[in-house]
Amino acid sequence: MSAPSVPAFCMRLLRRQLVLAVRRPVEIGNPLLFFAMVVALFPLGLGPAPDRLADFAPGILWIIALLSNLLTSDAVFRSDFDDGSLEQLLLSPQPLYFSVFAYVCAHWLVTGLLLALVSPVFALMLNLPVAGIAALFFSLLLGTAVLSLVGGIGAALTVGLKRGGMLISLLILPLYMPVLIFGTAAVKAAVDGAPAGPYLAILGAMLSLAIALAPIATAAGLRISVDA
After folding, report:
1. How many other C-beta atoms are found inside a 10 Å radius of the C-beta of residue 163?
2. Where are the alpha helices (DSSP H) in the chain?
């Protein structure tokens, strides 16, 4: 039997990861629950004044989305490493770049995409003006994809460690900062009546760069971790 084509192999990997995520609903629910809990706590800390919440809402929502993504990055390759299937993936004739990209896409679909879809509800809870909701959605859509790609690098480098959660935070958190800055700026610009397009374009450029380079770095990290 001939080996499957690269697109077919990647689609199988993506479907497999999504099926595993559905079978472990806790992995999907944890980021959403974390998002909801922190959003609910901020009014208690800042006070219920609508104007104050609206001023801080863009930064609050983006920080929570970043931390939610960071919370799940460690698990991107963990289960496959534990059961040995990650080693088989490295030995397969398929390009590792596309295999890694399939893993990252699955992670984004069950974390970043879901966070972007529910973000308007949490935005209204923090009294974010309606003018900023569209910018929040699109900035999270682009930004969380970048976070997943960058997080994959940290996950690959720490997958062989027993307690890699703290180390992955130290490795990739500085790389998350530009995404946080421009994502928050896009929402603030929309709220203030300024165009959010330039900030979204920068996020799009970051995503293009991450798609080109992050899977290469992730593949190299996996080889280092598995061979170590």
Report:
1. 8
2. 6-23, 25-46, 50-73, 78-83, 85-91, 96-110, 112-125, 133-158, 165-191, 197-227
Contact between 103 and 89 under an 8 Å Cβ cutoff? The reply is no
Signed CA dihedral, 99, 103, 108, 114: sign only: positive
Q: Which two tokens stand for residue 8?
A: 């077919």
Q: What is the pTM of this model?
A: 0.90
CB 91 within 8 A of CB 3: no
Nearest Cα to 110, choosing from 28, 36, 33, 34?
28
pLDDT tens per residue across span 127-181: 888 889 999 999 999 999 999 999 989 888 888 776 656 677 777 888 899 999 9
Q: Count the Cβ atoms, other than its own, within 10 Å of residue 53.
A: 18
